[in-house]
Amino acid sequence: MTTIAMRTLHTRWRDYLELTKPRVVALITFTALVGMLLATPGMAPWPILLFGALGIALMASSAAAINHLVDRRVDALMVRTCRRPLPSGHLEAWEVLGFALVIGALGFVLLLAFANLLTAVLTFVALIGYAVIYTLFLKRATPQNIVIGGAAGAAPPLLGWTAVTGQVDPGALLLFLIIYVWTPPHFWALAIHRRHDYASADLPMLPVTHGVAFTRLHILLYAILLFLIALLPFLTGMSGWIYLIGAVGLGLRFLSYTVQLYATGDDRLAMPTFGFSIIYLFGVFAALLLDHYAAPLLG
Predict the structure, then answer these.
(1) pLDDT in tens, 203-219
(2) Which parts of the chain register pLDDT below 50?
(3) Is domain 7-145 annotated with CATH 1.10.357.140?
(4) Domain parsing of the chain, residue ranges
C-alpha cells in the first residue's frame, strides 16, 4: 500500500470515528456499565458486560452519526462544527447514512443476542429520541429542547440495568434521573460560550432566545436541583457513605462553578463550568460503583 493510500485510509477512518462523537460515547458507555454493575449484588455476567456495553455503544454511535447527517447544513454555519466530515466534504451523506445503519443494526443484534428484547427496544427508542425527535424537531422548535430531549441522553445507565435484570427497577430510574437533571446545566454552559454560533444558525437555544443572564440563573437552579437529586441514592438505601461523601464533594464543587458563573456574570466561566460538569458526572457514577463494591468489604 502506497503512502498516499495509507494517508487516505487514515483520514477516512478518522472521519468515520469523528461521526461517532467518541468522547460522548465513552461517557455513555461508562454510565451504562455502571448501570449493569449496580443492577446485581455481585458481578454482572461477562457476556452482558462486554457485548451489552458494545451494543449500547454502537447504537449511541449510530445516533451520533445520524445527528451529523441531519445537522450537516446547520453545522456548516457554525465555527465549532464547520470542519466536521459532512460540511467539510470529507464524507458524503450516503456514506454517513450507510455507516449509521450498519453499526446501529449491529448494536441492536448484539443486545438481542446477549442482553434481552427490552434493552434492545429501549436503546432503539433512545436512538430515535436523540437522532430524530431531538435533532430534527426539538432542537429547532423550542429553547427547552435539551430539557425535553434530555431523556434520550439520560437512558444509558437504565439500559445497562435492564440488560442485566430484564426489567426497569426504581434504581435504574434514579440513575436516569441524575443524568436527566444534569443535562441542562451541562449543555447550557456550552450554549453560553457558543451562543453566537447558535444565533447564526438560527437555533433557538436558551441564551439566544432568553439571554445569557436568564440562562445563568437556570444553570444555577438546575445545579441546586441536581445536588439534591444526587443525594437520593443514599437516602433510599441504594448506596452508602462512600457514595454520599463523593456526591456531596462533587456537588458542592459543581455548585461553586455555577454560583460564580451566575454571581460574576463572567461568560469566560462558562467553559470551565461545562468542563467540570463532565468530571462531575463521571465522578458521581464512579462513586456509585466504588460504594457498591467497597461498602460490603468495609462492613
Answers:
(1) 899 999 999 999 999 99
(2) 1, 4-7
(3) yes
(4) 7-145, 169-299
